[in-house]
Design goal:
Layout: E1 7-13, E2 15-16, E3 28-29, H1 36-51, E4 59-66, H2 74-87, E5 90-100, H3 107-116, E6 120-126, H4 130-135, H5 142-154, E7 160-166, H6 173-185, E8 190-195, H7 203-206, H8 215-231, E9 235-238, E10 241-243, H9 250-256, E11 260-264, E12 269-274, E13 279-285, H10 289-294, E14 300-305, H11 311-319, E15 326-327, H12 328-335, H13 340-351, E16 355-358, E17 361-364, H14 366-370, H15 372-377
Parallel strand pairs: 1-4, 1-11, 2-3, 4-5, 5-6, 6-7, 7-8
Antiparallel strand pairs: 8-10, 9-10, 12-13, 13-14, 15-17, 16-17
Function: Probably acts as a heme chaperone, transferring heme to an unknown acceptor. Binds one molecule of heme per monomer, possibly covalently. Binds 1 [4Fe-4S] cluster. The cluster is coordinated with 3 cysteines and an exchangeable S-adenosyl-L-methionine.
Organism: SAR86 cluster bacterium
GO molecular function, one term: coproporphyrinogen oxidase activity
């Protein structure tokens, strides 16, 4: 029986100062200022329309991403949050994350974000090497990254994530490890450490950077980094996510555990369950900011019901990214399907030491986690 899972909210702010050559997100370089007031009004209308389908559930987490959300004023961020809370309700322990670019960091702005209700900051550091930052087309330098972390702490943020990349041009395992150690030295509560990938429809796809590490070098970087992080109390709880005890991103965990989320803003995606209809749907908003702003009646470009035959795979593609995995009850309540439908495959993979069921939790083994993409193919 499909039951309503926890509800999160993703807010997309699509503008940035300069689009990075590796970025395949829906981001657009600023041209002549930002339509900030109009966009805030559109976001509020967008939320109202989607929340009407959520059966008055409280919002458990909010993530404001982009683009570069820190281009918006704290007043605008506060107006959005206040509206969302006035229409819905927040859980007592709500997590509200804002992505910020070190190149747009200001002491007063960070303090104002905190006062507006943001309680978790995610800083897009990417590297502490000026050479690598230039290679990546970032607008900030290493010193600005260091300053931004300090400003965030001074503003009262006690829950900070640092985004860091590896597998960069001409980056050796020792270079990657030095970058990671620098990040750890600032004692962030959370680290997202992920590999540079060359995605379609990016500048790097059209003109790949030279001297990218090969698969062996990247594997060496990952192994050494994982050991260092675990040694210093950063527990890997998802493919690219590490956190101190109790500091996992609740918002991202809700994604990976097949929870529901409203997605508002240009190009935002959402996932919503309907217990009465025993159905799960995905939503997508109009991608181009101008089109999104002009679509007063509905900003949904598309609503697609997930076919029941696809629900198990959709669930597993998310849940098996986490080290914890999922329970049988979680699978059944979030897909509306019996666990028996995947039980034989789980037993087969368990017999091959790729999956396991421990204390009621179904997850990958260490070996299965390293072979996750191949393992997931078994369910397709």
């Amino acid at each position: 029986m499909l039951e309503l899972p926890p509800l999160s909210l993703y807010i997309h702010i699509p503008w940035c100062v300069k689009k990075c050559p590796y970025c395949d997100f829906n981001s657009h370089e600023m041209q002549q200022g930002l339509p900030e007031r109009e966009y805030v009004a559109a976001l509020c209308e967008d939320f109202d329309q989607d929340y009407a389908d959520c059966e008055s559930r409280p919002v458990e987490s909010i993530f404001i991403g982009g683009g570069t959300p820190s281009l918006f004023s704290a007043e605008s961020i506060g107006a959005i949050l206040n509206h969302v809370q006035s229409v819905s309700s927040f859980t007592d322990q709500i997590e509200i994350t804002l992505e910020a670019n070190p190149g747009t960091a200001e002491a007063q702005k960070f303090k104002d974000y905190r006062a507006a209700g943001v309680n978790r900051l995610s800083l897009g550091i990417q590297s502490f090497s000026d050479k690598q930052l230039k290679n990546l087309g970032r607008i900030h330098n290493a010193q600005e990254s260091i300053a931004a972390i300090g400003l965030a702490r001074q503003a009262g943020f006690d829950n900070i994530n640092l985004d860091l990349m590896h597998g960069l041009p001409a980056q050796s395992p020792s270079d990657a490890l030095n970058d990671l150690q620098t990040a750890i030295d600032f004692a962030p509560e959370h680290l997202s450490w992920y590999q540079l990938t060359i995605e379609p429809n990016t500048v790097f796809h059209a003109r790949p950077p030279s001297l990218l590490p090969d698969d062996v070098a990247i594997s060496d970087q990952e192994d050494a980094g994982n050991i260092l992080l675990e040694k210093l109390a950063y527990k890997r709880y998802e493919v690219s996510a590490f956190a101190l005890e109790g500091r996992q991103s609740r918002h991202n965990l809700n994604y990976w555990q097949f929870g529901d989320y409203i997605g508002i803003g240009a190009g935002a995606h959402g996932k919503l369950s309907n217990a009465e209809q025993q159905a799960v749907s995905r939503t997508r908003k109009f991608k181009q900011p101008d089109h999104y702003l002009q679509s007063n009646i509905s900003r949904r470009a598309e609503t697609t019901a997930i076919d029941q035959t696809e629900l198990p795979v959709e669930f597993l593609l998310n849940a098996l990214r986490t080290r914890q995995g999922f329970t049988r009850a979680m699978f059944e309540s979030r897909t509306g399907l019996p666990f028996s439908g995947i039980e034989k495959k789980v037993e087969y993979l368990s017999s091959n030491k790729l999956m396991q069921e421990v204390d009621g939790w179904v997850s990958t083994t260490d070996r299965g986690f390293r072979m996750l993409n191949n393992l997931l193919q078994e369910f397709l």
